[in-house]
Structures are given as C-alpha cells and as structure tokens.
Amino acid sequence: MLRTMIFAGAMLAASGPVLSQAFDELEGHYSSQTPGRELTADLKRIDGTRYAVSLSTMTPMRGDVGGCGGGIDGEVVLTGRRGVLRVAEPDAPTPRVCEIELRFTAPYELSLQEKNGCTYFHGAACEFTGKVTHDAAGL
User: Fold this and answer.
1) pLDDT by residue (tens digit) across 93-133?
2) Contact assessment for residue 76 and residue 51, using Cβ atoms and an 8 Å cutoff
3) Segments of 32-81 assigned E as strands
C-alpha cells in the first residue's frame, strides 16, 4: 500500500508540467478528406494569439497528367477565429507575398482560402484552398 502511494505521488509530481499547460483546441494536425488531393495544416501556438503554421498540398500524377505539390511555413495572428498567413517569396526580383486566409468555421474544422501570390510555393496545378479537419475530431 505504501509503495502504491509513493508511486502515485511520484507520477503526479512528474506530470505536473504537463497538467499545468493550457489546452488549446486550435493546435494540432488538420487534414482533408478530398479524394485525389491532399491538403494538410499544422498549427502550434507560439504565444497569445500567434501561431506557427505549416501547410502542404499534393495532387498525385494520374496517367499522363502531371501532379504537383508544395508547402509553406509561417506565422499568423488570429483575431477571433480567423487570420491571414502572409509569406514573402524568397529572392523575388519584385516583392511578392503569398496570402492565405485561415478561418475556423466549426469545431475542429479549418477553412483555408488562398488569396494570391502562392504559385511559387506549390506549382500551377495545386492550391492551398479547402477545408481540413482536426485529426482529433473523431475522438
């Protein structure tokens, strides 16, 4: 009995840092359920309403039709449940910025809308537009 209490106390003490971290329902991995196309988003809270965002898209090659794919990483500040990810194209002779609107439309659902300037990051046949669902949505 004493060993059980000591073990339980040690486990509680070890989990203290984990228990003290606030749960953020927006953080995590999101993916699409669109056949023939892959779209994913990863969000990690940096501080306050600022998040690190990583997006990727991929359309596989079919027969003689080429596929495409790409990704983009950046930071977004959310106001309410929306924000705009802005990432400058590296080494562009004239400044070009990729803009993607992120909007949480339902619990565990994120809508991505590519606004402009993102072809450099994914090629001509792909896009960062669509709805993605948090992988924990079905739990």
Assistant:
1) 888 999 999 999 998 999 999 998 899 999 888 899 999 99
2) yes
3) 38-47, 50-59, 68-77
